[in-house]
Amino acid sequence: MAKEGEQFWIEDGELCHKTVRMFKSKEVSRGEKALRRFERELEAYLNKADVEFSIGDFSFRYINVERYGKTLKEELRQRLQIPFLPDTHSYYDLIDDIAPLTLISFHKRKIPKAEAFDAKKAKVSVFGWLLKKYPQAVIIPEFGIGGGSYAKTSIVDMAVFDTKRMIFVEIKAENDTYARVAKQLEISALNADEVWLAIYEAKSIPKEIHENVGILSLLGNGKTKVIRKAKPFKHDGAWVGHIWTNEWQDAFSGIKGHSKWVKNQREGLEGLVSMGLKILGKKARQFTIDMWRARYQNEFVWRRDHFLDGDTEKAHVKRGGQRNEYDYWKHCKDRYGTSSVLCCRPVLSDHAPTGFQFPNIEPRPTVKTFLQIAKERKANGL
User: Fold this and answer.
1) Distance (Å, rounded) from C-alpha 261 to C-alpha 14?
2) Pair 346, 315: CB distance under 8 Å
3) Reduced to 3 states, what is the DSSP secondary structure of residue 10?
4) Tens digit of pLDDT for each residue in 85-106?
5) What's the pLDDT tens digit per position in 333-381?
6) Distances 312 to 125, 132, 248 between C-alpha atoms, Å
7) Which of 98, 107, 213, 240 is at a distance of 20 to 30 A from 359, taking alpha carbons?
8) Nearest to 87, CA basis, from 100, 108, 72
């Protein structure tokens, strides 16, 4: 292995990785994280003609060939130093000619066009279309469904929170593939009232797409055309989405005894959700929509206003973390004089039945600090 650079190895049957740099700690990553880094390193070699890799007893060669059909076979024959390869040979015959225990994987990679209708242009077109179609909605790009680790693997390209429903949009630009689109739409349909698929110059609808999914064609000139209208998916009104812990805690304010119960209940977020569902019942889904609208309203107003002012980059760029919250708040405060432009955060006191009381919970035991214990021991002469 190299003294500096990216190092990969197999340990206990698991792929491991670490980056070695002078004056830098060597942190080891394993499993999926190491595999993702390994795939990125492979991508870095795309412009090289022939690269050899070795991991333990396993070694392989990466060959980059920009040819197809017979010319591809001839190029591989020369690279792999096969003396003769008849035209009638298939790829499987080619494998047998090299070695019975050799595995060859062919991967066709589409080279993006320089002026292709990429994901940025697609998201800008969809954002403008959504603004007109849902004028009262809050629209957010790159929305994670479910929260936690699930949200990291299930991202909706555009999430629309209208006053009474939520709409998810999956976007496929000119160079995108449809390998995962069926699964993406299936996950979206589990949560959204409406699901749309935006395709670059859609000429036909993929067979695996559910009939309720709307199809939006993205034209090369930036305009859009509805190919098929979306039909609603039916959901249980008692469904509640991922609401943050601090949002639940604030939502209980206004109900008598909420402060004591929130402080003493020991089930964490699950306890807050369970009590919230008891109060909301079939109104839980609408409560979730209202909460998400309130959570993202400042961010949406910031994106919308920049978009309408001609700065379309703000419509699709992903901005996460609390460091951007001040930008949204200041924009709304400076332009509109208030931080609640569209709606206010919902509270459970509007839904709680008359005379509602929290269950009695024993106060949490007081945990003494080290300083308190030391003072007591000193006072007792110990």
Assistant:
1) 46
2) no
3) strand
4) 555 555 545 555 554 445 455 5
5) 888 888 778 788 899 999 988 888 888 877 766 667 777 778 888 888 7
6) 9, 15, 34
7) 240
8) 72
